[in-house]
Design brief:
Blueprint lengths: L1 E6 L4 H11 L5 E7 L4 H11 L3 E4 L2 H12 L8 E4 H9 L6 E4 L7 H9 L3 E4 L3 H4 L2 H11 L2 E4 L2 H9 L8 E8 L17 H4 L9 H9 L1 H14 L6 E5 L5 E7 L4 E5 L5 H9 L30 H12 L1 H19 L6 H17 L7 H22 L1
Parallel strand pairs: 1-2, 1-5, 2-3, 3-4, 5-6, 6-7, 8-9
Antiparallel strand pairs: 8-10, 10-11
Helix pairs in contact: 2-3, 4-5, 10-14, 11-13, 13-14, 13-15, 14-15, 14-16, 15-16
Length: 392
């Protein structure tokens, strides 16, 4: 029986993780659940899974939780912690075996590092741990003997196809991308794109920020950076292919020309169940994939003129860890500004390129601590705000 902490329980990864855990009560016990402000959903989850600890983002959220518990006196009130200190406390709790790191953004960084320092089994869905602090995070994992398992579907697919004993015979990693809503949109028309259009993904429904990242392929760029750190390959060994059907989730090619692919439904319960049970496999609650209905698999190279953000992610990776951090911070600021209809869609890539060029002049050193990571993130966000003001 593994005691599991879910950091970010009310998001998509957290909800899917609980769906899998619910089917395997003999294998997993939910020890702690966390949410920033969605106390209503957190309480509903707690009623079902009866965690020992809950973590919320503020004292007001604690009062909301207590009100919910007062309405259900038959329930035992768990220990309730607050803020980053609470997240770090549960992530390194000696009773915990597995930490699902599903908090989005820089806000999830401290707690993931706490889990790594404590030598936990980490199911990683927080991109920033590797994008903003790749070398530093991996050193922390290696020093403690923590286990790092990717949950993102593309990296999990590669992990499933990658034979560690044959890593030296690896030729390339191939990350697949749907191409998003503008795959067939002429470049000249992108200046008129609205946030509503950018958030209309052809294959699935996601949050607004990640939907825009999928449209620009900045998200795929972040995944390239993650793959570089996760699998210890050269930048030139990581390729991206457009695959609109989203059936093949990623591939590994070996020196003999063999290509291994992981394919199936685009359902996050598959990578989550694999990571939870690794090295075994358990039911993910996903139905059998009907291969007889599969009529087409198409692949093509990305157009870097249209998907400039993907090219810029490769550029940031060439420059080093601090520049990957800069890419992420600038992109986040610019996407939010676009969603608020304050800049045009092409300005996202233009802004990232301008900020990276500015950072080259700064000659950023590799981060030696989490404070360095936070300092670079803050500096880039401030520079991006200035660039946005000048661009409007």
């Amino acid at each position: 029986m593994e005691n599991v902490v879910i950091l970010g329980a009310t998001g998509s990864i957290g909800k899917n993780t609980l769906n899998v855990i619910a089917s395997h009560p003999d294998k997993f016990k939910v020890y702690a659940l966390t949410a920033h402000r969605n106390t209503k959903m957190l309480f509903e989850q707690a009623k079902v899974f009866l965690p020992n600890v809950l973590v919320v983002g503020s004292k007001d959220a604690v009062q909301e939780l207590n009100t919910y518990y007062e309405s259900c006196p038959e329930l035992t009130v768990p220990k309730i912690l607050v803020g980053q200190e609470g997240l770090c406390e549960v992530a390194q709790d000696s009773a915990v075996d597995t930490v699902v790191a599903a908090i989005v953004g820089i806000a999830g960084l401290s707690s993931v590092f706490s889990a790594a320092k404590a030598g936990k089994k980490i199911l990683l869905a927080n991109k920033e741990s590797l994008v903003a602090a790749g070398d530093l995070f991996l050193k922390t994992v290696q020093a403690s003997g923590a286990t790092l398992l990717p949950v993102d579907s593309e990296h999990n697919a590669i992990f499933q196809c990658l034979n560690q004993n044959q890593a030296k015979m690896l030729r390339r990693l191939i990350l697949t991308a749907s191409g998003g809503p503008f795959l067939n949109t002429p470049l000249a028309e992108l200046a008129q794109v609205t946030p509503e259009q950018a958030c209309k993904h052809p294959n699935w429904s996601m949050g607004r920020k990640i939907s825009v990242d999928s449209a620009t392929m900045a998200n795929k760029g972040l995944e390239v950076i993650e793959a570089y750190y996760l699998f210890g390959v050269q930048r030139e060994q990581i390729e991206v292919l457009i695959h609109p059907q989203s059936v093949v989730h990623s591939m590994v090619e070996y020196a003999d020309g063999s290509i291994l692919a992981q394919m199936g439904y685009a359902d996050m319960r598959i990578p989550i169940s694999y990571a939870l049970a690794y090295p075994d496999r358990i039911s993910s609650n996903v139905p059998t994939f009907n291969l007889s209905q599969l009529t087409e698999l198409r692949f093509s190279l990305p157009d870097y003129d249209k998907f400039t953000c993907l090219k810029l992610a490769y550029d940031a990776l060439s420059l080093g860890s601090a520049y990957c951090n800069a890419f992420n911070a600038a992109n986040e600021m610019l996407v939010n500004t676009f969603l608020n209809k304050e800049i045009s869609y092409p300005r996202i890539a233009q802004g990232i390129e301008a900020i990276l060029n500015d950072m080259v002049a700064e000659n950023l050193p590799a981060p030696q601590s989490l404070d360095d990571v936070y300092d670079t993130d803050l500096m880039v966000r401030e520079k991006t705000i200035l660039w946005i003001r000048n661009a409007q």
